[in-house]
Design goal:
homodimer, 3-stranded mixed beta sheet, about 290 residues
């Protein structure tokens, strides 16, 4: 047993899978559920993701509280929990951006922000909600914790132990670097995929285009099936890093455009060959 | 039996799979292989994709000749075949762009361009070469034929019958529309994926970025694992349509950038919601 009581705020795919995995590992005795969506809480209870539905004050009495919701809701939820927080209770989150979440924790929790452990599990799917939760979602997946300067060391150790019990490999990263890295390898690709699909869908003759789209298009745009609310929040929360990545990508696309316009066969072949090589190296590093 | 002798120019994934499927269907008696890569021909012979290796003059004596090579090689190959072409022989191709291929056929074949049937199977994978060929590659997949004004009707009918025997659904499309549609749903996504990977790979600290790339990145960039030579040729052959698509995408990304910069939550949510909805509709239409 790592903690007696775990409270989950947002009992969807991410929170529900965390609860399931920890129950299966015997790492928690009781899981409490709280949130603003009664249907989702009821479904989580029925599926056995949580043992009990509680209110904000009830959740704040748990030993550990996981926030698993769109990052834009973090500040409001922390404010609701703050007045009731049990002594020694740890608060952690699963948001995709980290600098903004740390700022929100400092503002809402004051001195108790030492008990806040910012986290980001690198797992998920376009599926969402309690029905999609699975005990093995985090098995072998990475979880990044981004400890801030005044973090309580044993709170960090407990959250690390919980994720490890859920099957994840835990790493730590500076929060600003985290946000820059994920802007590049996750946030930008998501926004680029949404934009590509939307640009086509806006055309009067979009049916003709979609009709001939095939497996390359399907995979390229898979992430455009993700939650619009979640990605709106991420785009807003990671604005600066995302703008830098967008500008780098726009510049790279402009230089590609130049090569196409100039029929520069050599430049195109070089670019495509470098890209394929880099991707092959990356795929190999993923296997090991 | 639809044709007695079929010659395949380029005995890789596309040509080899066509040959395998037609043999299995009993639609051809003998398959001849020709090309500039002796290793690929030898491998195709060993795998039974072809029955015999022939020279250009030998290939030109077949009843039907399929060109399955990077579109940039089309003109040169047609010129080699032209002087030897048997009376009534049909020439077809599997290139990803069609306007340029038709122009090349008119120049190389003159009046015999009536026997040229431009085709494009919407199937493939990042795998290539004879080892990747499979009899079921075209099963249930679309093949687009783009007949030109002076095409011989029975040549078109024979090529249609061959693809149908290979398991494909055949459709016809105007060549210019074909090139515009595929620029949007295939060529642009490929180039956008190559460019994203290359832009990251060029960074001094690219390791840190690739280290945290996950399944979203993997799927978004899967098509950046494709053949650089093939995509160089496509980019060159479909230059005008591709430039138009690149400009439309760049404009859409600029307007996304504006929404991010202005923290325009409403515009972002609308864009992401529209995109997800359009993709869901498309996926449903694919199932049916």
């Amino acid at each position: 047993m790592i903690v007696e009581q775990l409270a989950i705020v947002g009992t969807g795919l991410i929170g529900g899978s965390f609860a399931l995995a920890l129950k299966q590992a015997g790492a928690v005795r009781e899981v409490l559920g709280v949130g603003r969506n009664p249907e989702s809480l009821k479904a989580a209870l029925e599926r056995g993701l949580i043992d009990r539905i509680v209110d904000w004050a009830g959740a704040a009495q748990a030993d550990c509280i996981l926030l698993a919701l769109p990052v834009g809701d973090t500040a409001a939820v922390l404010q609701r929990l703050a007045p009731h927080l049990k002594a020694g209770a740890i608060v952690t989150d699963a948001g995709s951006t980290k600098v903004g979440v740390i700022t929100a924790a400092r503002a809402a929790l004051g001195a108790r922000s030492a008990d806040f452990v910012p986290g980001h599990p690198i797992a998920g799917s376009e599926q969402s909600g309690p029905a999609a939760a699975r005990a093995d979602l985090y098995q072998g997946k990475r979880v990044v914790l981004t400890p801030h300067a005044d973090i309580r060391t044993d709170a960090l150790a407990t959250v690390r132990a919980l994720w490890e019990a859920a099957g994840a490999q835990v790493e730590t990263l500076d929060a600003a670097l985290h946000d820059r890295v994920f802007a590049a390898v996750s946030h930008l690709p998501h926004l680029a995929a949404f934009t590509l699909v939307d640009e086509l869908a806006q055309r009067a003759d979009s049916d003709t285009f979609f009709r001939f789209a095939a497996s390359g298009f399907r995979d390229f745009t898979r992430i455009a099936g993700s939650s619009p609310e979640m990605w709106r929040d991420i785009a807003l929360a990671n604005r600066e890093a995302l703008l830098a990545e967008l500008d780098a990508y726009l510049a790279a696309l402009q230089s590609l455009r130049q090569a196409v316009e100039g029929s520069d066969a050599g430049a195109l072949l070089e670019l495509f060959s470098r890209a394929r090589g880099a991707r092959e190296d990356w795929m190999k590093s993923q296997d090991s």
